UniProtKB/TrEMBL annotation, chain A:
Protein name: N-acetyltransferase domain-containing protein
Entry's Gene Ontology molecular function annotations: N-acetyltransferase activity
Domain (N-acetyltransferase): residue spans on this chain: 76-213
Keyword annotations: Acyltransferase, Transferase
Gene Ontology CC annotations of this record: cytoplasm
CDD domains tied to this protein: NAT_SF
Source taxon at top rank: Eukaryota
Automatic annotation (TrEMBL), chain B:
SUPFAM superfamilies linked: Acyl-CoA N-acyltransferases (Nat)
Keywords: Acyltransferase, Transferase
Record InterPro entries: Acyl_CoA_acyltransferase, GNAT_dom, NSI-like
Organism: Dorcoceras hygrometricum
Gene Ontology MF annotations: N-acetyltransferase activity
Descriptive protein name: N-acetyltransferase domain-containing protein
Domain N-acetyltransferase: residue ranges: 50-183
A cellular component annotation (GO) from this entry: cytoplasm
A Pfam family reported for this protein in Swiss-Prot or TrEMBL: Acetyltransf_1
Length: 213, 184
């Protein structure tokens, strides 16, 4: 079994294809049907390797033959209506669509997770939906701040949020942004700590102007 | 479940509750009244600037170094300033050099973060830092940005508090990525 990774551009423009074998995951995959595998780009451990803008993060086959792919993209391809639906699903208060669109446009990087499902035997019949997003604002030189991290509740608990943030951070580091920050609700401080974020480094505190709390 | 709660904070839409209206009124009035007026500062030989035009980046870098920032590449500073939403700096007319500075980045609609707040040590203690901050905040509020945040060193928490900043509201923590602390 080989894993295909698409580099650059959209999924329909294959500029180059790299076939990679992961022996451990293949062995495990052959032993079970319907296994969800997290596919890492080769040498994910080396920060020098350029992360592709879009790639398949997870691929799994359902018992009925449907293949579902979870695709990561840092290209910011977000339909603002899909985003609003996703925000509704996680219970966030509604924000004006025009402001959502502006916020996305003004963000330095928008990372998304989409689920693409293909029914067995039906060529060209794809169902694509937005299931996760995280965005970062930045001055393009020194600092980036991550905002609006969300994962569809029915896709939570699978490590997708973790993967989303890891890839976003890696993309930012590769663009030489040295300071990556965020503000975390108390319940998610541990989540971000496990991803390499430190609260109050050297006693530096996050402060908000006239917060509503 | 971990990711249910948003990181960014935006006001819910629809009719504001009385509490929200009071909050909004306080915020706006806090933003438009300055402790030290423009006239008072100009009579003492200081000029405010709201763009990076005429800002000498080498002089700015010198002020950064004077307050203990690590020395940064001037060209990188230029890139950062070109991608900054709002800038407020004070020029000392006699020397034509910047003596106070602050900038804010963000998404232009919901969130802004204030960075690089500095006052030249020779000009500290006369209210320039406060003057810069009040005007920067006012500009952001006027743009409709409701979430204004910053990261404060422990020794200047007392500078930001009287300006209306609260540390860790509702237990929210500022966090920074550290390559060394990555467990994976």
């Amino acid at each position: 079994m080989s894993i295909t990774i698409y580099f650059a551009g959209t999924r329909n423009q294959k500029i180059s294809r790299l076939k990679v074998r992961f022996w451990e995951s293949i062995r495990a995959g052959i032993l079970k049907n319907n296994t969800a595998q997290v596919i890492e780009p080769p040498s994910a451990a080396e920060e020098e390797d350029i992360l592709p803008e879009e790639f398949v993060m997870v691929e799994r086959t359902q018992p009925d033959g449907t293949v579902e792919q979870i695709i990561f993209s840092s290209g910011g391809n977000v339909d603002v209506y899909d985003l609003q639906d996703l925000c509704d699903k996680v219970g966030w208060p509604r924000r004006p669509l025009s402001k959502l669109a502006a916020a996305l446009r003004n963000s330095y990087m928008v990372a998304t997770l989409h689920s693409v499902s293909k029914s067995a035997g039906e060529e060209g019949n794809e169902q694509k939906k937005l299931i996760g997003m995280a965005r970062a604002t930045s001055d393009h030189a020194f600092n980036a701040t991550i905002w609006d991290v969300l994962v569809d509740p029915s896709y939570q608990g699978q490590g997708l949020g973790k993967a989303l943030i890891e890839k976003l951070v890696k993309s930012l580091l590769q663009r030489d942004i040295g300071n990556i920050s965020l503000f975390a609700d108390s319940q998610v401080v541990e989540f971000y700590r496990n991803l390499g974020f430190v609260p109050d480094p050297e006693g530096i505190k996050g402060m908000f102007w006239h917060p509503k709390y | 479940m971990l990711l249910r709660c948003p990181i960014s904070f935006t006001p819910p839409l629809g009719k504001p509750t009385p509490a929200q209206q009071r909050h909004a009124a306080t915020a706006v009035s806090a933003a438009s009244v300055f402790s030290i007026s423009d006239e008072s500062l100009s009579s003492r030989g200081f000029t405010f600037h709201r763009t990076i035009e005429n800002l000498n980046l080498d002089s700015l870098n010198t002020v950064f170094a004077a307050v203990g920032f690590p020395r940064r590449d001037v060209e990188k500073i230029r890139v950062a300033l070109e991608h900054t939403d709002a800038v407020l700096w004070v020029e000392y007319d006699k020397t034509r050099k910047p003596v106070a500075f602050a900038r804010a980045t963000g998404d232009g609609v919901f969130n802004a973060i204030i960075w690089d707040v500095v006052v030249d040590p020779s000009f500290q203690g006369i209210g320039l830092g406060k003057a810069v901050m009040e005007r920067l905040i006012s500009e952001l509020v006027e743009k409709g940005i409701s979430n204004i945040a910053l990261y404060s060193e422990p020794r200047v928490l007392g500078f930001y508090r009287p300006l209306g900043f609260v540390a860790d509201p509702d237990g929210i923590r500022g966090m920074v990525y550290s390559r060394k602390s990555k467990k994976i």
